[in-house]
Write a structure and sequence with these properties.
- The complex is a heterodimer of chains A (about 160) and B (about 500).
- By secondary structure, chain A is mostly helical.
- Chain A has two domains: about 55 residues; about 80 residues, no CATH class.
- Chain A is built from five helices and no strands.
- In chain A, helix 1 runs antiparallel to helix 2, helix 3 runs antiparallel to helix 4 and helix 4 runs antiparallel to helix 5.
- The longest helix of chain A is centred in the middle third of the chain and has 24 residues.
- Chain B has 21 helices and two strands.
- The N and C termini of chain B lie far apart (about 70 Å).
- A two-stranded antiparallel sheet of chain B has the order 1-2.
- The chains are: A mainly alpha (about 160), B mainly alpha (about 500).
């Protein structure tokens, strides 16, 4: 077994115990032994068993390990942060500054970091891309993305 | 007869044709980009289907999946990087042909075989699904319970990991499906007081996250340099397809049949279908030494197989509501979005829609032939699109798609959480596909489990009281027992090996 498997196993056992505790308060169907908690209890029990098996048995199959390099370059960190910033900016700032700006800023940063420079091209591409997505989704598909102070780009 | 006429009226419309073209072009592009899979292409198109009528929405999915699977051959042949996992089986062969100046043979045969496979799969789907639906109409909760168990068991076993890890993934999916108001008692489960969670975790944003976001994180962390396309000679594709395909007709037919069958098996998708067909073609070939060195037999068998598996995956999806693979799980999501609950009753109440969808399979494969030819000619240019431009585009589509599900950023949060979870799972050898199937099948399994429990009133033998349920139950339990036995056996062998050392 690997340490990762042990950690997963321990986490699953804890999750299983938590679930069993939580589901014990779920109501049953009137006059029946089964109810809202039955199915989650079965899942929790099986998760617990799997956790124990993972903890004690060895995984002999090879799999593609997610490679996290020992020396993570600054570029990778910025890319990863800006990748997560796209949904975060859209969720928290689009109602204030609009979807176009809140998506274009992190997308631009992501593009610059992934392409290792090419600032002007990346800024132009991210602005163009965000504007196209905004226009297509708001005008053609009627998704209510926030306008913000910029309004709809290019007079659409 | 009226049903067929109605179906044809639904298909031969400009909007359906345009969605087939658009879905096809998107699928071809996504499949050709290494790391972007057919399932990801389908997941990213789901938000677009919100705004389309049922037939164009499903046509979009059919076209995207069919074309993405073929398109995965292109980077395999030109750069030795399979575009999708389904092309991995014969990547060495197509690349060998390109290296030796015969790129047109590898790609032409791949295209021809994909079209044959797609057509054969569509034919089998059209003929078998209505017949199976008639049988499935007599199913009770016992049969559905065992069928769901059997499907999920197969999904766990065929995943490229250990059975335990496959089961863990499945249980995570099933657990996610229990979130929200319980259908039987109306009791809120695991909602943490959040009103957004009352309706449950929508599996479409979760699927977008698991397939797209997880892959983006992995690719960024790998920080690899983008491969370049070498110079290659491209001969006449038409000549290859018209002359050599006939020579390999037996391989194409066999590959198509195997692909459809494997595709219909829950959990086994196009990649497994391609590997199985390739292995069988090698076993039956008189030129086994050519396998891995540009074998035409292997390319035809595996190419026809991976494309036919798409239609195969639709058979259990439409008839029983049990997805054949993760792509079919997305189809179930689209069917529900379009108020077409999958199952045998769909064939009773909306047969015209289903026949229209079957027809789109045939049209999509005709289009594949035309668009695939153009794509092969353009491939060297398309493969130059930098990942630095592509990744931000994908991320933005994911965000807008997850938002469009309920016009709420809660979907975006679900997508991101699912993406991170899937990345962790993959990093620990836990496959993602069983979790998706668990999320999709969770409600069906729980509903039939509880109904059967109430009907059985504590008597477990009633789960085996009907002939089909007994057969399904026995097969399922036998598979479980065999798996446990083989795990014990391999564990003991491992202990012995350690002892010998």
């Amino acid at each position: 077994m690997t340490n990762k498997d042990r950690i997963w196993g321990a986490l699953l056992v804890m999750l299983s115990l938590g679930l069993l505790y939580k589901t014990s308060s779920f109501p049953s169907l009137p006059g029946q032994l089964v109810g809202a908690g039955t199915f989650p209890e079965v899942i929790a029990t099986l998760l617990g068993v799997c956790g124990i098996l993972l903890f004690f048995t060895k995984d002999k199959k090879k799999f593609d390990q997610q490679v996290i390099p020992n020396e993570i370059q600054l570029r990778v960190v910025i890319s990863l942060v800006s990748l997560f910033a796209v949904p975060l900016f859209c969720s928290f700032f689009s109602s204030i500054i609009g979807f176009t700006l809140s998506a274009a800023i992190p997308t631009g940063v992501l593009m610059i970091s992934l392409r290792g420079g090419k600032w002007l091209q990346s800024v132009f591409l991210s602005a163009l891309l965000t504007s196209i997505v905004f226009v297509v989704f708001t005008k053609a598909l009627l998704v209510p993305l926030a306008d913000g102070p910029l309004g709809t780009p290019i007079g659409f | 007869m009226d049903v067929y006429v109605q179906a044809m009226e639904m298909v031969f419309r400009l909007d359906v044709f345009l969605t087939l073209l658009a879905g096809g072009a998107f699928g071809l592009f996504m499949g050709a980009m290494p790391g972007l899979t057919s399932t990801m292409a389908m997941a990213l198109l789901v938000p677009v289907t919100f705004f389309l009528p049922p037939v164009p929405a499903l046509a979009l999915m059919v076209a995207a999946s069919s074309m993405a699977i073929f398109s995965g051959d292109l980077p395999g042949a030109l750069m030795r990087i399979p575009g999708t996992p389904a092309s991995a089986a014969y990547c060495e062969d197509t690349y060998y042909l390109t290296k030796t100046g015969r790129a047109s043979i590898g790609l032409g045969l791949g295209l021809g075989a994909s079209v044959v496979g797609g057509m054969a799969g569509a034919l089998i789907l059209s003929l078998s699904a209505p017949l199976l639906a008639k049988v499935a109409l007599n199913f009770s909760s016992y049969e559905y319970f065992w069928l769901a168990c059997l499907g999920l068991t197969c999904a766990t076993l065929v995943s490229q990991s250990t059975a335990v890890k496959g089961l863990v993934s499945l249980l995570i999916g099933l657990l996610a499906a229990t979130v929200g108001l319980d259908a039987t008692t109306g009791f809120p489960r695991f909602t943490f007081g959040l009103t957004e969670m009352m309706g449950g975790i929508s599996f479409i944003p979760a699927m977008i996250g698991m397939f797209a976001v997880a892959e983006l994180i992995s690719t960024i962390l790998r920080n690899e340099k983008q491969a370049t396309v070498p110079q290659y000679e491209m001969g006449s594709l038409w000549k290859v397809i018209s002359t050599r395909m006939w020579h390999h007709k037996a391989n194409a037919v066999r590959g198509s049949l195997i692909g459809t069958l494997v595709g219909a098996l829950p959990g086994a998708g196009a990649d497994i279908a391609a590997w199985v067909s390739y292995a069988i073609a090698k076993k039956l070939s008189k030129k086994t030494e050519e396998f891995g060195k540009g074998t035409e037999e292997g390319i035809v068998a595996a190419s026809s197989s991976n494309n036919s598996s798409i239609a195969g995956g639709w058979i259990p999806t439409l008839v029983f509501g049990i997805p054949g693979d993760s792509g079919a799980a997305i189809i179930i999501g689209v069917l529900y979005l379009k108020d077409l609950a999958p199952g045998p009753t769909l064939f009773l109440y909306k047969p015209e829609v289903l026949y229209a969808v079957f027809a789109t399979f045939f049209i999509a494969n005709i289009l594949l032939f035309l668009m695939g030819t153009v794509m092969i000619k353009l491939s060297s240019h398309i493969l130059k699109v930098p990942y630095g431009v592509l990744a931000p585009c994908i991320m933005m589509f994911c965000v807008v798609g997850a938002f469009a599900m309920n016009n709420s950023y809660f979907g975006v949060a679900v997508m991101m959480a699912a993406g991170v979870l899937a990345w962790f799972m993959k990093g620990n050898g836990i496959p993602v596909a069983p979790a998706i199937l668990g999320m999709v099948l969770g409600n069906l399994l729980e509903k039939n489990f509880l109904t059967s429990m109430v009907k059985a009133n504590g008597d477990p033998l009633l789960f085996f009281s009907r002939p089909i349920s007994a057969a399904l139950g026995i097969v399922t339990i036998l598979i479980w027992c065999l798996q446990i036995y083989s795990s014990f056996k391999s564990g003991r062998r491992h202990q012995q090996n350690i002892g010998n050392l």
